[in-house]
Every structure is written in structure tokens, then in C-alpha cells.
Amino acid sequence: MDLKEEMENADEGLQIGPLIDVVFLLLIYFIVTSSLKEPEGDLGIRLPGNVQQSTQLQMPDEQIIEISAEGGVNLNNRLWDEGADMTDLIDTLRNYKAAAEATGNKAMITIQAADDTRHQRVIDVMSACGQAGIVHLSVGMGGEE
């Protein structure tokens, strides 16, 4: 073999030594130039201690009257059946209105009736509210499933 053939055979393989040297140099460069974690900056935010309210918030005093499909009226876990006299409910609503006015709130009633409740029973409860002097009413359907 002559010298030319030996040089051609030597160039056929990949020289891994210089490649490893370059990788180590790059690794050392990135380790030296990188920082681990930036320190947090102080933003200087001051949170208020006690905030004074300019106007007093009035929360309405609300009660929910549920009417079942059978006509039963439920107010604060007290049940009036279909044939029950509504005078006791009217007295309860009058007491509720007096208590709400004593605290400076509006007496509000939400009537929550089941989907298949007779409309007459809803009207009976609405007229009981009217006799008690409660004028702020809202009616919702679908109270029971």
C-alpha cells in the first residue's frame, strides 16, 4: 500500500475526539453564563388595613315559601296542608314583616312552587302575603322534583 491509499482509509471514519471536546466546551460555557434563579423584585405594594364603607349596605330580609304539588305550603319547616286555614300563615307573615321592619330591612317573599302545583294554591299564598302587608313578592316554578 502506498501513502495515498492509507490516507483515504483514515478519512473514512468519524473523528469523535474533537466532537467530544466541542461538547464539553459548550457545556462549560452554558454552566458559567447561566444563572440559577432570578431574585424576586420588591414591588412595594401596600394593602389597606381597614376600609371604611361610604354607604351602609342594606340586605333584604327574604323568606322562601315552598308549595308542593299536593298543595302543602312550607315556610321555615312549618307545613300547612291543602285544607288548612291560612290565618295562621297570615299571622306568621305579619310577625315576619314586623321583625324585618324593626331591623330596617324590606320584607321579601319568594314563592317557590312545584311544576304541577294548582294555580289556586299559589294565589292563596299570594293573597295571604297581601293580607299580611308584604308587597315585595317573587314567584318561581319548579321547586320540587
Account of the protein in words:
With 145 residues, this protein is of the alpha/beta class. It contains four helices and five strands, in the order ααβββαβαβ. It has a five-stranded mixed β-sheet. Strand 1 and strand 2 form a beta hairpin. It is elongated.
Instruction: Report the average pLDDT across residues.
Output: 80
Beta-strand portion reads 15-25%
Radius of gyration (Å): 41 Å
The level 1 CATH classification of the domain at 61-141 is: Alpha Beta
Helical content (DSSP H or I, runs of 4+): 25-40%
Q: How do the strands of the widest beta sheet line up side by side?
A: 3-2-1-4-5
Explain the layout of strands and helices.
Blueprint lengths: L2 H9 L4 H18 L27 E7 L5 E3 L2 E3 L6 H16 L4 E7 L5 H14 L3 E6 L4
Parallel strand pairs: 1-4, 4-5
Antiparallel strand pairs: 1-2, 2-3
Quick synopsis:
This protein is an alpha/beta fold and 145 residues long. The chain is built from four helices and five strands. It has a domain at 61-141: Nucleotidyltransferase, domain 5.
